[in-house]
Amino acid sequence: MNKRIINNKPEGNIIWRGLGGHFDSMSQILNEFLDNSISNFKGNNPIIKNIVICIKELPNKKVFFSIEDSGTGFKNLDSAFSLGAQDAKDSPMNEHGFGFKHALATANPDNNTWEICSRNKEQSEKGLYTKIKASYKFEDFEAFEINVTDTPWPGQLNGSGTYMAFTCDENLFKTVTEGHSGNFGFEKRVEFLIEDVGFTYSNLIKDDIANISIVYTDIHGTQKNKNVKSVEPDFERYINPSKGTTKIKLDNNDVTVQYEFGAMRDSEHRKYYKRNMSTSGVEIRLNGRVIATNIFKEIWGIEKHNSYNYLLIKVNLISDEIQSLPTTRTSKNGIRKGDKKLEDLFGWIRSYIPEPPKSTKDIDHEVDLFEKLKDLKNRQLPDPKTITTEQNVFKEIKERIRIDLYQKTNDGLVIYEGKKEFTSVQDLYQLKMYWDGCIIDGLKPDIGILIASSHPNSVQDLIKYINQMTDSNGNNYNMKLKTWKDEGIDYPSI
User: Fold this and answer.
1) Which CATH number belongs to the domain containing residue 414 in this structure?
2) Is residue 6 part of a domain?
3) What is the DSSP string of 179-224?
4) Where are the beta strands (DSSP E) in 394-446?
5) Rounded percentage of the chain residues whose pLDDT exceeds 90
6) Which domain holds residue 111?
């Protein structure tokens, strides 16, 4: 039997062009580079967590980009530049092992303008860094160690970190305003890009995981610098289960969920949270990074309609175990269908909202009752007083969990958790969590009130047990059960 060897060694530029095309916009490409930087921050926790993006308008309809971070540099160059390799990942944000190679191939399909520089702490102290530049190939692909006295570090930051740069076509940069009417110049497109980044990483920016700034220079040499701010929705009201943190099972894996169920107002942002059919629905984040938005029919099996435009459900799934989270597309611009974890998440959402009401007028929720209670107490209680439904706790550990009603007077601090109809054991522990959060923040509650139309026997029995327990200050919890009518609210009315 004769045999022959099949020569199937890939040619670098052909593979490079095949890698490109996975992204729909310049923002998605940029996000891939930011993922690497933020993942490095999360995995190594450097003291300084800065990212600087430079954008420069060039002649001949070209745009220059660089992304620099203050991380620890590449751990393993061989792994970093191997397709699909994951042994050098810093956190679950490095999910697929294709990320920045895909992004570079999309940004620079000709495989001729990109360069990457990296230096760890030891190199930085010695005045050295490693440089890799186009073209990407599978043979004789080289990295060079550079002395800063010969060729200075190309970025702006000091110490260890990475620097990536490429030049792309202006048409690719224009994708940041795709779908929006108007004649946009260079600066306006940069502003759209800033909003995209602020939206994608809003949780991480808000939690000080990364400080991102953008320096941009137009073709006339005018330079400006802007910090990227967290892009947040403006909630008019919350819908059951409101806002909080819990644990759920996704394909039998425990995952922490931060959630906000609400009716939003039209925001002042250019692209996001506009209370329309393209910015409402369900938004899913994995460890703070947005993955999928505008999900609706997939959960409820009904077509989107203007009457649902108010609805926004934000879900942030948190886990250090990547296999516990739904699987994303390689480009991280969506979640793969047919994933049992995704179906379990949709089921959890439907357990609270089996079918979305068609307008905010159809929503009857305890939020309304607490607003009435707040107004009543503001009229009845003497000054000085603070009566609010906007008090957050656990701020000392960089969490923000909202108490249903916070009442501070000369008589002491009273905190409320409530339900419109019936309470459960879980609601009582939610009130206990508010109490513990107050103590962590340096506040001392005097009374915790669980309020509803009625309380089952299980809750009445459990509250006696909890009141025998002591908090972290060594004081007994002081929980009480009340009805809306006890507090002067006519609900349920007869």
Assistant:
1) 3.40.1350.10
2) no
3) T--S---HHHHHHHHHHHHHHHTHHHHHTTS-EEEEEEE-TT--EE
4) 401-402, 405-409, 412-418
5) 65
6) 12-227
Contact predicate 115/132, CB 8 Å? yes
Report the run of H or E that residue 107 belongs to, with start and end: helix 99-107
Report yes or no: 454 and 422 within 8 Å, Cβ to Cβ. yes
Beta-carbon contacts of 294 under 8 Å, excluding residues fewer than 6 positions away, are 278, 279, 280, 281, 282, 283
Do 278 and 184 share a domain, yes or no? no
Q: Does residue 2 form part of some domain?
A: no
Comparing CA positions, the residue from 376, 441, 375 lying closest to residue 403 is: 441
Contact indicator for 393, 401 with CB cutoff of 8 Å: yes
pLDDT tens-digit series, residues 251-296? 999 999 999 999 998 999 999 999 999 999 999 999 999 999 999 9
Q: Are residues 331 and 404 in the same domain?
A: no
Alpha-carbon distance values, 54 to 65, 113, 216, 310 (Å):
6, 16, 6, 36
Q: Quote the number of domains for the chain.
A: 3
- Calculated CA dihedral for residues 467, 471, 474, 475, nearest 10 degrees: -40
Distance CA 484, CA 452 (A): 6
Let me know whether 217 and 248 are in one domain: no
Sign of the Cα torsion 227, 231, 236, 237 reads negative
Higher pLDDT, 99 or 167: 167
